[in-house]
Amino acid sequence: MGMTMTQKILAAHAGLDSVEAGQLILADLDLVLGNDITSPVAIKEFAKLGKDCVFDKDKITMVMDHFAPNKDIKAAEQCKMCRDFCGEKDVTHFYDVGQMGIEHALLPEKGLVTAGNAVIGADSHTCTYGALGAFSTGVGSTDMACGMAIGKAWFKVPSAIKFNLTGKLNKYVSGKDVILHIIGKIGVDGALYRSMEFTGEGLACLSMADRLCIANMAIEAGAKNGIFEVDEITLDYIKAHGAAEPTVYKADEDAVYDEVIDIDLSSVTPTVAFPHLPENARTFDQIGDIKIDQVVIGSCTNGRLEDLEAAAEIMKGRKCAPNVRVIVIPATQQIYLDAMEKGLLKIFIESGAVVSTPTCGPCLGGYMGILAAGERAVTTTNRNFVGRMGHTDSEVYLASPAVAAASAITGKISSPEEVMS
Amino acid sequence: MKYEGNAIKYGDNVDTDVIIPARYLNTSDHAELASHCMEDIDKTFVGRVQAGDVMIAGQNFGCGSSREHAPIAIKASGISLVIAKSFARIFYRNAINIGLAIVECPEASESISEGDRVEADMDSGIIRNLTTGKEFKAAPFPEFIQKIIENGGLVNSIANGSIK
């Protein structure tokens, strides 16, 4: 029986000729990731394993990004625990303030993931690296601890939904609109336990930033992983970032899919997910006058240079609406620097926005932009659950960088065309 | 393994942000996490949960963040077993890995009401609602996962050499 892209990668990493959906396997890992929130729990579990060293000091990475720069004393202690562990175990890829960025923007940029890899990360958005043609999935801290110790993880081989992409994206429409459209269509558990595999001629119009954003939110449909078929755009990106030699896995012609969903990219329009689930997707014909208090442009979903460029195009020469707090967070130090050199930071600051050092902070209600009761935010992040960005009576609306920027200017949820026409 | 306790019931898509809000993720202390368990969905939970109680949930329980703090908080609060229509996949593996008993049983989830007395035998997969007398059968875990649970979680399975 034919295999999907994901099944081929898993088979190769389990030392098997073939696998089928439902099979339980123990797979070799190319990279194990943790952050300042999940790693401390993993480090405590690692200590119980009685191992002196990690399985491979070059295949573990810890990124201090959630509550870093340290938001309080407890956060400082958690980062210190990670720093001490990585120092003691001589972990090569430890990223602290000054080198760090939001993990899922940082790892592809640093060339730590390549096509054909099997990656686990103690962070649910680890599925982002599927954009590079890797099998990559979020796990918990215990899996991270065991992965650090033996370089393996157990998996139930997933079945898959194939997304056949056709057409081209229209102006002001991005990967974020595509994934919100898809989650709106299939629901927050529409891909539960399964892979989402993206293929089709429509891939040609999707930049790596679009693909990373789409794969990033596969978890919001419940998926085990999201993965893109590798093409020239992927290979160019991998080469440009100095990643290891890629191994390209294509799905077999006779691969079995639970479902095939056709998405015509030219029919996708700017989409906003209303509180309190990412599946509450609405297009602008269904959105009335909704006043907002805050805008966040950033995160592992949409904090890349292309995202900042899309926002800057709309905010250039315009002022943010009075009483709207606009927070822009470049996802990595490199993106920050590139945005500075391209003059984007000037555009943001002149429009009345603040620009922050890389951090996950506001996305998960940690710090750097918490909402009060009754407040509303339009954000380019990935979750709009109850209390996600602050008070349980606040509201989060998920959108693309272009929609977030347009909303920052008007002070209400607005489409880019409303501002640009 | 047998469990018995009173049911505490929630709906669909209970996410890990409401199980343990991120503002408390600056600690990994089990008791401290338990003291904020379910805080953003049910402020009465911590005050009323009794050791052994059974949590009943709908579809996609534990969706969202991969934070293992969520099953840890539930386990440390005294909940002995979570019965749901379905679990989000990271929560599912985290619960197995840390040794929080969980089981998918849509019929039991539908039928059991808040406050009902529930008994479950996870060796046979039989769940009984002692208040109404109704009985349900859940599918047993695959052998590989059963072994992890029998070894007391993934860390113990590796420490004792059953997974290499």
Percent helix range of chain A: 25-40%
Enumerate the strands of the largest sheet of chain B in spatial order, edge to edge or round the barrel. 4-3-2-1-5-6-7
Most strands sheet of chain B:
7 strands, mixed
> Which of globular, elongated, flat, extended, rod-shaped describes the shape of chain A?
globular
Rg of chain A (CA only): 20 Å
Helix and strand content put the structural class of chain A at alpha/beta
Distance between the termini of chain A: 53 Å
| Low-pLDDT segments, ≥5 res of chain B | none
What's the short story on this structure?
The complex is a heterodimer of chains A (421) and B (164). Helices cover 30% and strands 18% of the residues of chain A.
Explain what the structure shows.
The complex is a heterodimer of chains A (421) and B (164). With 421 residues, chain A is α/β, with parallel strands linked by helices. Helix content of chain A is 30%, strand content 18%. Chain A has 14 helices and 18 strands. Chain A has a five-stranded parallel beta sheet with strand order 4-3-2-5-6, covered by helices on one side. A five-stranded parallel beta sheet of chain A has the order 16-15-14-17-18. In chain A, strands 10-9-8-11 form a four-stranded parallel beta sheet, covered by helices on one side. In chain A, helix 6 (175-186) links the parallel strand 8 (160-166) and strand 9. Chain A is globular and about 60 Å long. Chain A starts with a helix and ends with a helix. Chain B is an alpha/beta fold and 164 residues long. Helices cover 32% and strands 20% of the residues of chain B. Chain B has eight helices and seven strands, in the order E-H-H-H-E-H-E-H-E-H-E-E-E-H-H. Chain B has a seven-stranded mixed beta sheet. The radius of gyration of chain B is 15 Å and the shape is globular. The mean pLDDT of chain B is 94. The chains are: A alpha/beta (421), B alpha/beta (164). The interface between A and B is large, with 53 and 43 residues.
